[in-house]
């Protein structure tokens, strides 16, 4: 092959924040092949964004050489910038300019001649399906459309190398699929070289090559197969009719030879340390152990499965963590209430003549994990705010823990914990100070406060960070702290609004481990998410679009509806996309 | 200028203009705020003494005292109130019902007849020192005028050794509005040039548009010029609006050349923009940019420019500091051109100072701006 499209040779870069120096990249050598899609994958703080910025000359490396398209970036940054397209994580769309005005601006900045523009615009608008919206202000586009417009602006002057920094973060599954289709087309038709970073591990399989980055070091580079192949024989599906999948998962996670156990549909997917399943004869079945004693699980179904990139990622990066389940013991006298703990009947919320939520009903039982799934703007956050008593419903009946929210919102609120999307922590206060503040805000007495804070520090492994300002914590720890704060007053119900948005796969796993523990102890959990694979962790869920419920049921029921010869085992994402597409087919007038 | 440079600049300027037109807050800072400030200072704030409530205490009323109090009643500067004794008047002063007391003792007429010397007692409320000093001067003026006319009536020479005959130059009507309103223009242009400009650049950092801008083949000076030109036009628009209001609404005379005023304003606008762009090289959030602009440009322009507080009456170290405040030179130019006319030595000297500052600020902004994120 000819020269690589992008070549990093022993590149290091560190940043000074205050007195400490943080190494973002440490002697990284990578190359992106011409005419291929190279994926850049790694957890938070691995150095992905720094690498992208170095490649376009927005940062200067401490050492090492960088060549983009054979040009030395240090010597001729302007030359690189005129032949490389770069889409930063938050692409700089001018929200008060229309789609067309944004395109015009970037055409001017890239020096695209007026003669060539019209044809290029038409091509880009067709590719991104933004044609009907050229007069709309960019700020009024949905998240997915914004991302596509950002990509169109980057592509006005056809670049030879395209750098995309997490282009699919916060974008709904349909738009994500469309973005990938655009990228594939570009590579095929225009021989573009693409470097794309992503937090979605399943997207790695779409790349020709994957660079795995962790804590500023390159852990590997190769085809996705080259990662997953060594994992062959180490991945299994386990299931049992006598044990709930979540309890099975909890037990499996505790076995030393098992690196990872996650719920995958109705089964538990297990990654082992060695090429065989460790001894799992100690698994016990569900049931009243106090009366009958532990009974051995005898109907365990074990089948080997095809390894994926994600398995390799987890096996490479996961450090053994002690089981957290012990911290979430069932509470004294937590007798299960018979009726639903949350009941929503024909809820509506209007803003002017816009319906954010129209006619939604569902029930949640105690100890259930209930999911609200939907794209941005589906009405999930509005529904949540109504359930927390922060926003009155325009019509309908909402009952939480036996309290009618219209009359006794404050009483209901004292029994629920709420973790907002942006974590709502005081960034200038330390972890301990944050916990102390939230404990006093919930009105805990001195003794109880001390006890609960000790519990939170231990259960969420925050002790080492007690004196660190919460603003300086890694994202995964911020999330832990936010969840600890929401649980200080021992609520019966926990509301989680997009809790894992932007959090890397490892932190997301730990997070769900704790959620499972909580649910097992009798806490009811209501969660919104746009990660379709996380929907599998829910007992039941509703899929929402434009303020309405499209489907309600267990993950298995949802997926079963979309099983076909072409798609023998549909994923949650397939089900979601199928539901949205059906809706648009049935309601042609609404689609625009 | 190459065609691509021209294309990029045109694109940037068009973008910036559209944003200004669509963003109500920049229109507010550029046009609404000037109007509000002008109305406030033009009508609301006055440093003149007018209708000052004065307590007149006449212990032994007769024809002479009546003639004297009549002089107060006629004056447009005072609103006299009569009290029977000094104790009552003092109560009124303490209660803020009056700002001054004029006390004619019982021997007023006797001494007047005896030697033409008639001392009066004057008490001032000194809390507002400025107001007190002005009132005191006016009271003295009333007294001396009355003495003079009394002496003429009696066919006698006035016993007062020196007679003050005031001649006020440049602002003959002694209207504070006439020097406040021109000074205000400096404040308004600082607002647009430094505060608005640094905040819109910070907004680009906040929204991530700056990063996208920087990876295009644009040059850093093109980004700076692309910001400079639209806000220059906006600031000059604000200036023209203020001058029009000053002349036509408040009747402030513009004695100097309009073109000299425009030229000096353009120069000051560039200094102001230079400060704004310099601030934006360090401030990456709108909040920080606004705070720095307020403390480093707006407040000094308000306090240390000679707009309200006379520089020559400040302590020497503060006077020294005012030399690094660009607004100082511009206020001097404004007040000269409005009230005195084309006094070229004054105007040109101050323009020279502004020119030096423009070169410094714009040069620093250019040096400090990099097409990099670290």
Offer a few descriptive terms.
heterodimer, A: alpha/beta, Rossmann fold, Alpha-Beta Plaits, 6-stranded mixed beta sheet, B: mainly alpha, abc type-2 transporter like fold
Q: In words, what does this structure look like?
A:
The complex is a heterodimer of chains A (592) and B (374). Chain A has 592 residues and is α/β, with parallel strands linked by helices. Among the domains of chain A are: 6-222, Rossmann fold, CATH 3.40.50; 228-320, Alpha-Beta Plaits (2-Layer Sandwich), CATH 3.30.70. In chain A, 31% of the residues lie in helices and 25% in strands. In chain A, the strands form five sheets. A six-stranded mixed sheet of chain A has the order 6-7-8-3-9-10, with helices on both faces. Chain A starts with 5 loop residues before the first strand and ends in a 6-residue tail after the last helix. The mean pLDDT of chain A is 85. Chain B is mainly alpha-helical. Chain B has two domains: 3-45 and 175-368; 52-154, abc type-2 transporter like domain (abc type-2 transporter like fold), CATH 3.40.1710.10. Chain B is 68% helix and 6% strand. Chain B has helices spanning 3-22, 24-44, 63-74, 86-94, 108-115, 129-154, 177-207, 209-214, 220-249, 258-282, 286-303, 316-322, 326-340, 344-368; strands at 52-58, 78-83, 100-104, 121-124. In chain B, strand 1 (52-58), helix 3 and strand 2 form a beta-alpha-beta unit. Chain B is elongated and about 95 Å long. Chain B starts with a helix and ends in a 6-residue tail after the last helix. The A-B interface holds A 15, 53, 56-60, 77-78, 81-82, 84, 86-97, 101, 104-111, 150, 153 and B 4, 7-8, 10-12, 14-15, 18-19, 22-23, 204, 207-219, 371-374.
């Amino acid at each position: 092959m000819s020269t690589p499209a992008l070549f990093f040779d022993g590149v290091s870069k560190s940043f000074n924040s205050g007195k400490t120096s943080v190494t973002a990249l440490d002697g990284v050598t990578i190359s992106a092949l011409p005419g291929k899609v190279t994926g850049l994958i790694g957890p938070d703080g691995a150095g992905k964004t720094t690498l992208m910025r170095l490649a376009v000359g927005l940062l200067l490396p401490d050492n090492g050489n960088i060549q983009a398209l054979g040009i030395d970036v240090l010597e001729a940054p302007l030359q690189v910038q005129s032949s490389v397209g770069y889409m930063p994580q938050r692409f700089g769309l001018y929200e008060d300019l229309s789609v067309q005005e944004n395109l015009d601006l970037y055409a001017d900045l890239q020096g695209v001649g007026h003669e060539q523009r019209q044809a290029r615009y038409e091509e880009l608008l067709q590719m991104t399906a933004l044609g009907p919206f050229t007069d709309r202000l960019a700020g009024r586009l949905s998240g997915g459309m914004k991302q596509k417009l950002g990509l169109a602006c980057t592509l006005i002057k056809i670049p030879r190398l395209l750098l995309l920094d997490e282009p699919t973060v916060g974008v709904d599954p349909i738009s994500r699929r469309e973005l990938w289709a655009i990228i594939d087309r570009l590579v095929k038709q225009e021989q573009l070289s693409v470097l794309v970073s992503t937090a979605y591990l399943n997207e790695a399989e779409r790349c020709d090559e994957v660079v795995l980055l962790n804590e500023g070091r390159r852990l590997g580079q190769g085809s996705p197969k080259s990662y997953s192949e060594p994992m062959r024989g180490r991945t299994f599906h386990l299931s049992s009719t006598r044990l709930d999948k979540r309890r099975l998962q909890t037990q499996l996670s505790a076995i030393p030879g098992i690196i990872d156990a996650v719920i995958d549909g109705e089964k538990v997917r297990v990654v082992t340390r060695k090429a065989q399943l460790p001894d799992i004869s100690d698994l016990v079945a569900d049931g009243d152990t106090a009366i009958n004693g532990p009974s051995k699980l005898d109907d365990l179904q074990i089948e080997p499965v095809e390894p994926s990139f994600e398995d390799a990622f987890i096996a490479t990066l996961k450090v053994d963590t002690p089981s957290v389940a012990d911290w979430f013991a069932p509470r004294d006298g937590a007798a299960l209430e018979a009726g639903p703990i949350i009941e929503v009947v024909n809820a509506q919320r209007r803003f002017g003549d816009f319906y954010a939520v129209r006619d939604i009903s569902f029930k949640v039982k105690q100890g259930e994990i209930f999911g609200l799934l939907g794209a941005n703007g589906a009405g999930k956050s509005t529904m949540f705010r109504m359930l927390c008593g922060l926003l009155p419903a325009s019509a309908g009946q909402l009952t939480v823990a036996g309290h009618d929210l219209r009359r006794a919102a404050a009483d209901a609120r004292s029994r629920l914990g709420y973790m907002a999307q942006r974590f709502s922590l005081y960034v200038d206060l330390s972890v301990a100070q944050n916990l102390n503040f939230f404990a006093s805000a919930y009105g805990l007495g001195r003794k109880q406060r001390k006890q609960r804070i000790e519990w939170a520090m231990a259960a969420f492994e925050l002790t080492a960070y007690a004196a660190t300002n919460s603003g300086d914590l890694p994202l995964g720890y911020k999330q832990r702290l936010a969840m600890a704060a929401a649980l200080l007053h021992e609520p019966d119900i926990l509301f989680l609004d997009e809790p894992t948005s932007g959090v890397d796969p490892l932190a997301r796993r730990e997070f769900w481990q704790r959620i499972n523990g909580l649910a097992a102890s009798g806490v009811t959990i209501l969660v919104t998410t746009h990660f379709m694979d996380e929907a599998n962790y829910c007992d039941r869920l509703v899929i929402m679009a434009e303020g309405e419920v499209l489907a309600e049921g267990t993950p298995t029921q949802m997926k079963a509806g979309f099983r076909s010869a072409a798609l023998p085992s549909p994923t949650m994402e397939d089900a979601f996309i199928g539901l949205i597409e059906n809706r648009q087919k049935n309601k042609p007038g609404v689609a625009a | 200028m190459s065609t691509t440079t021209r294309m990029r600049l045109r694109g940037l300027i068009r973008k910036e203009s559209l944003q200004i037109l669509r963003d109500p807050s920049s229109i507010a800072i550029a046009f609404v705020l000037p109007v509000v400030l002008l109305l406030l200072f033009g009508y609301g704030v006055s440093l003149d003494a007018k209708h000052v409530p004065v307590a007149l205490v006449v212990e032994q009323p007769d024809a002479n005292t009546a003639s004297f109090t009549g002089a107060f009643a006629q004056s447009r500067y005072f609103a006299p109130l009569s009290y029977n004794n000094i104790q009552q008047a003092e109560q009124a002063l303490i209660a803020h019902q009056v700002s001054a007391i004029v006390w004619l003792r019982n021997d007023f007429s006797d001494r007047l007849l005896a030697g033409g010397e008639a001392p009066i007692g004057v008490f001032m409320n000194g809390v507002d020192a400025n107001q007190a000093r002005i009132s005191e001067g006016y009271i003295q003026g009333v007294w001396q005028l009355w003495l003079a006319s009394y002496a003429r009536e009696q066919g006698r020479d006035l016993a007062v050794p020196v007679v003050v005959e005031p001649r006020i130059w440049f602002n003959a009507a002694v209207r504070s509005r006439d020097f406040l309103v021109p000074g205000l223009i400096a404040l308004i242009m600082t607002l647009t040039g430094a505060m608005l400009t640094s905040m819109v650049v910070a907004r680009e950092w906040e929204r991530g548009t700056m990063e996208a801008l920087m990876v295009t083949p644009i040059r850093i000076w093109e980004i700076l010029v692309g910001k400079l030109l639209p806000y220059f036009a906006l600031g000059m628009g604000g200036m023209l609006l203020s001058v029009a209001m000053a002349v036509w609404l408040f009747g402030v005379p513009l004695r100097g050349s309009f073109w000299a005023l425009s030229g000096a304003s353009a120069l000051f606008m560039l200094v102001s923009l230079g400060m704004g762009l310099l601030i934006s090289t360090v401030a990456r959030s709108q909040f920080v940019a606004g705070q720095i602009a307020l403390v480093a440009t707006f407040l000094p322009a308000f306090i240390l420019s000679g707009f309200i507080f006379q520089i020559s009456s400040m302590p020497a170290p503060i006077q020294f500091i005012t030399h690094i405040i660009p607004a100082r030179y511009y206020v001097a130019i404004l007040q000269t051109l409005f009230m005195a006319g084309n006094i070229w030595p004054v105007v040109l000297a101050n323009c020279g100072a502004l020119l030096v500052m423009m070169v410094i600020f714009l040069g620093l902004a250019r040096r400090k701006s990099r097409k990099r994120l670290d």
